[in-house]
UniProtKB/TrEMBL annotation:
Organism: Microbulbifer epialgicus
Superkingdom assignment: Bacteria
TM region(s), chain numbering: 29-47, 53-74
Full protein name: DUF58 domain-containing protein
Alphabetical list of PANTHER family matching this protein: BLL2464 PROTEIN, SLR2013 PROTEIN
Keywords in alphabetical order: Membrane, Transmembrane, Transmembrane helix
Amino acid sequence: MTQSAAATETQKTLPQNGRRGPSRRLVKLLAYWCLAALAISAARIWFPESSALIETAWWTGGALLIGAALLDFLTSRRVMGLEGERRLPGNLALGVRNSAHLKLRNNSPHTLQLFACDSVPQQLATTGLPRKAHLQPEQEVTIEYTLIPHRRGSANFGRIEVLADSPWGLWQTRAWLGREQSVKVYPNFLGISSLQALSSEQTLRMLGIHQQQRRGEGMDFRQLREYRLGDSQRQVDWRASSRLHKLISREYQDERDQEIIYMLDCGRRMRAKDGQLSHFDHALNGLLLSAYVAIKQGDAVGLHAFAAGDNSSGGQLPPVKGESAINLLLNNVYNLHSGTGSADYSGAAQQLLAKHKRRSLVILITNLRDEDSVELLSAVQLLTRRHLVMVASLRETAVDHLTQKPIEDFSGAVDSAAAMDFLHRRTRLLKQLQACNVLVVDSRPELLHQALVEAYWRLKRSGKI
């Protein structure tokens, strides 16, 4: 997976000028002139002998202001020599702070005083705009501001907007620079980027997972090496040993080319939030990181999303393997969103069975509750006839907090009792799943990636996949 550091498209075009309008300075001066009329009215009462002189001064000041405004309007120029260019990262990651740059250049022979702003889509939060800039002829300035995406999908930027002051600052001309631009907001893939240069063992250590070495017990031949203390006799390659006049062992690795299919619940329950991210976004982060580990082990990963929102795209990917698999998965889920409907576990299981005949590890990522028991148990019973099934459920930390919160009044006691009953019913459902030979992962949303990788690695080392 690669991530370009900056956009490759240069956006230099002639500015599109809008109409000119009064600046704040002109509006303030006109407001002061109108307030002076009230002062003149009071002066007629307190200083009647000077009222004529004051009134003449007021009219003179008004005439000078209107004349200056008219002259400034006539001498103000259209913004024809200004160029604008926007530079964005090639991709954005959800919730990650990024820097964007507006590059402005004054090719006109006149000094420009202006305010610059950008047409940023609503799904991105910004800081550092608008900004004031003073450009001499042939001068260039770069304005940096920050972007923090809070929704995945395509982010469409409009043109750069500037307000250029007239020579005396009484009028402003609105202009649009550059071109429209689009950038994709992905799930937080920076964790994957940090793991790319690492080996499988280093990747697991970085994720906080401790593996037990089991040398030579896999099914696929890996390499020949010198005999080590602890190797079994069946590992010794006697032909190679006789040729090299020393003991040589065969080293094996776990079977590769297994298939892992993620069943992702996109129903309304996954819209619940823990911190800044929803359960659905936490599920995507966990899915991507665990899928990356599986791909590095040589396995194929696929996706079967169900109950997705109407504005979603993607969500269906047959098992793929190799270096390009994680990019295919990222591009398949970046615009996938949770819907407002309920998850249909049985329907999703039947669709999966119709598409995937080969025995695979099916990982269902959802948010379980007691009311799901009948439909969910029916769905996993269908799946276990052909596949090895794992159910990964996200715990709602708000419920855990209620059970840990000290009880101070009757309302607190009711909340605590309700939370304990909710967790008890949920635990009972998880035990029912385990009784159906289903592997269960119960994790807090922010730790789901680690829990999924640990469960996958246990299965891999046990030889079940």
